Amino acid sequence: MSRSDDLIAEYKKTGSLGLLPSGHFIDGAYVTPSHGSRMDSLDPGKGEAFAGFAAGNADDVDRAVQSSRKAFDTVWRDTTPAERSRILWKTSQLVIDNLDLLAVTETLDSGKPLQESMGDVRGAARAFEYYAGACDKLEGDSFPLGPHYLGYSIHEPVGVTAHIIPWNFPISTAARGLAPALAAGCTVVAKPAEQTPFTALLLARLLSEAGLPDGVCNVITGTGLDAGAPLVSHPLVDHITFTGSVQTGKTVMKTAADEITRVVLELGGKSPVVVLSDCDHEQAITGVLGAIYENAGQICSAGSRLVIEKDIGEAFVDELVKRTAKLKLGHGLDKPDLGPVNSLEHLNKINGFVERARSRGANIVTGGSVASDPATGKGWFFEPTIVFDVPGDDELAKEEIFGPVLTVQLADNPEHALALANDCQYGLVAGIYTSDFSTAHQMARQIDAGQVYINEYFAGGIEVPFGGNRKSGFGREKGLEGLKSYCKTKSVAARIT
Ligand code: NAI
Ligand code: MG
């Protein structure tokens, strides 16, 4: 039996996992919350609680921020880049050593299929590996001021960084924020979503085991209102990386204004996948299915709008429907094609979108209903759903559903497809499927999105900057550009003769 089989057997027998931490992580150790309050995390595949965790409040947040402040001022900002690099590198290895525990935990917390959790954990390890290599390459510039002056710049760490993490990619989002922040010399207070608190807590311990000094990375669990809000308003926080809904993003940005705290906002999307007649159809079909059904569509960058040329639209969608019908729903630990959605509240939200569309007479060509795990009759599932020929001004084409619901829009020609793709309040990502090199790159220029995927949706990795335009937010994570979010440039100009 593999390690993950052991963990799954333990969960099936006891309904929980013995290795899960239960307190906040502050100053290098798990600690109990100041008022002893707790909440439960629910397994979306069963709709049942499986473990408790600390419900943090403003006092816990203050303790964590003070700890991060002290660690920044006294230790981490002056730790050599080479030493930071060694710690991040070691963390990457420890994440892989703990792949099974992290992935099984992620699946129980979030619901996602175990194979996707495994991919997310490997991606998290890769983020630490990538930024480990960048710590000692944060070079500044020198400025040509003539013989009497010396001008140069230094990239200094911004200070204490707060990371507000959503429930759809808990360990991935934590890693893509923590790794560059720590690489740049910042300290961290992370607040994972209350639906998925555990992998961030486990990651903090692994960082500590890798040699990260106490206080450099603290994790506070709890709700957005009780733990998130006091964190983003804390005067000792210098920077906030927020990933989540547009509504909460606005609140965070307004709060940040009071202390002039820096923000990176990674918000929602309604990303188009443009499929042109001349594409490789098999490649496009596989791409479109993955773009909407991975993590049951709960991805800010999901390809939730198929914008397809009319002449191939019907046959293409027939094939999508055929393949969608074969997808197996199930508990994440059973490695299904499609897992549950994260919460009952979220399931009801998705169902609301589809019910309203049905009452408007929408052409739902497959799926469209709430479902359950066929093995147990439990869990919060929504059938993989395709809605054909949706007008551009319909709610289904405009709003982020954040579920396995694909909206199909028909285009007369490539120009019309581009217009439909851009007719959107969001601008996170866009996919293009075509075999014409020039069309692909012209369209890549004309689409308003932070990133464009050509002939492979979700292509690229930690090397590629990621972030949104329009209501999808601003600032970039990942890549070397992501590192700059955690640096402030200091220019020095000196008269030397
Ligand atoms: P949310 O944006 O409220 O939650 C994201 C994170 O923000 C969580 O850690 C939460 O505890 C925290 N938070 C909430 N209120 C806060 C506040 N006032 N100050 C600081 N932190 C706060 O999103 P929620 O309620 O979980 O989901 C609502 C909808 O948002 C979903 O149905 C989905 O459509 C969308 N969403 C989009 C995500 C994305 O990656 N773009 C991720 C999660 C949700
Ligand atoms: Mg949960």
Give an overview of the whole structure.
This protein is an alpha/beta fold and 497 residues long. The chain folds into two domains: 3-267 and 474-490, Aldehyde Dehydrogenase, Chain A, domain 1; 272-461, Aldehyde Dehydrogenase, Chain A, domain 2 (3-Layer(aba) Sandwich). It is 40% helix and 22% strand. It has helices at residues 3-14, 58-74, 81-97, 99-110, 114-132, 170-184, 198-209, 224-232, 246-259, 281-293, 310-325, 344-359, 395-398, 414-422, 437-446, 479-484, and strands at 24-26, 29-31, 38-43, 48-54, 142-143, 149-157, 160-164, 187-191, 217-219, 239-243, 262-266, 271-275, 303-309, 363-366, 370-371, 381-382, 385-388, 405-411, 426-427, 429-433, 451-454, 469-470, 473-474, 487-495. The strands form seven sheets. The protein has a seven-stranded mixed beta sheet with strand order 14-17-18-13-12-20-21, sandwiched between helices. A six-stranded mixed beta sheet has the order 9-8-7-10-11-23, sandwiched between helices. Strand 17, helix 13 (395-398) and strand 18 form a beta-alpha-beta unit. Helix 1 runs parallel beside helix 4 (99-110) and helix 3 runs antiparallel to helix 5 (114-132). The longest helix has 19 residues, at 114-132. It is globular and about 70 Å long. It starts with a helix and ends with a strand. The mean pLDDT is 97. 1,4-dihydronicotinamide adenine dinucleotide is lined by residues 164-168, 191, 193-194, 223-225, 228-229, 232, 243-245, 248, 251-252, 267-268, 300, 346, 349, 400, 402.
